[in-house]
Design brief:
Layout lengths: L8 H10 L10 H13 L5 E7 L5 H7 L2 E8 L2 H10 L6 E5 L11 E7 L7 H14 E12 L9 H11 L4 E8 L3 E8 L1
Helix pairs in contact: 5-6
């Protein structure tokens, strides 16, 4: 049975308290392949200012850092951010913050916003607020990259429902530049009109 409410900070804190890598980000072949495809799908070789929503323990953050002049990585839970900071300690241009979006959206303009494996945690109304905040902070010709599991979930939305709703909410300001489907996930790239 699916959750009805947006997943809370407490949910993620409890999850990481019981397992420091609950989705096996550091070792999974699936995750490594997904990260490789995500980085390959980025439309530019370099970004001035990037925002990663839901960075978890920082595995993808570390690889993304090599493509950015500045990278702000957010997570709702404090526990995974400790691991992420250690994993990315050599990157002085990467900043980590504990924030719960959409309510605590950071100030600033970004030419890349990455939302990987996070949209299905939101109720539809929160997802629409998140899309609005992302749209407002995306630079001209900026890219918004979405990467999501397409299997069954017990979260408020499935991966397909969440991504399709996010794309629909962004339709006035963004175009779908790329939409790839793989056996277990989808990768969508939106670009500002």
């Amino acid at each position: 049975m699916r959750e009805k409410a947006t997943m809370s900070r407490a949910y993620f804190e409890k999850l990481y308290a019981s397992n420091p890598d609950p989705w096996n980000f550091a070792c999974s072949a699936y995750e490594k392949e997904k990260y490789r495809k995500t980085l390959a799908a980025l439309p530019r070789s370099r970004y001035a200012a990037a925002l990663e929503i839901g960075c978890s323990i920082g595995v993808l953050t570390r690889d993304l850092a090599a493509r950015c002049d500045r990278l702000l990585a957010l997570d709702a839970a404090a526990t995974p951010l400790e691991q992420a900071r250690r994993r990315c300690a050599g990157f002085t241009h990467v900043r980590f913050e504990q924030r719960t979006v959409p309510g605590q959206w950071p100030a600033g303009t970004f030419d890349l916003i990455l939302l990987s494996e996070v949209l299905y945690y939101f109720r539809l109304d929160d997802l629409h607020r998140l899309a609005s905040e992302a749209s407002e902070s995306l630079a001209q010709r900026g890219d918004c990259v979405l990467v999501h599991w397409t299997g069954e979930t017990n979260y408020p939305l499935s991966g397909d429902e969440a991504v399709d709703a996010f794309i629909w909410a962004m339709r006035e300001t963004m175009i779908l530049a790329r939409g790839d489907r793989y056996p277990n996930f989808r990768l969508d790239v939106l670009r500002r009109r």
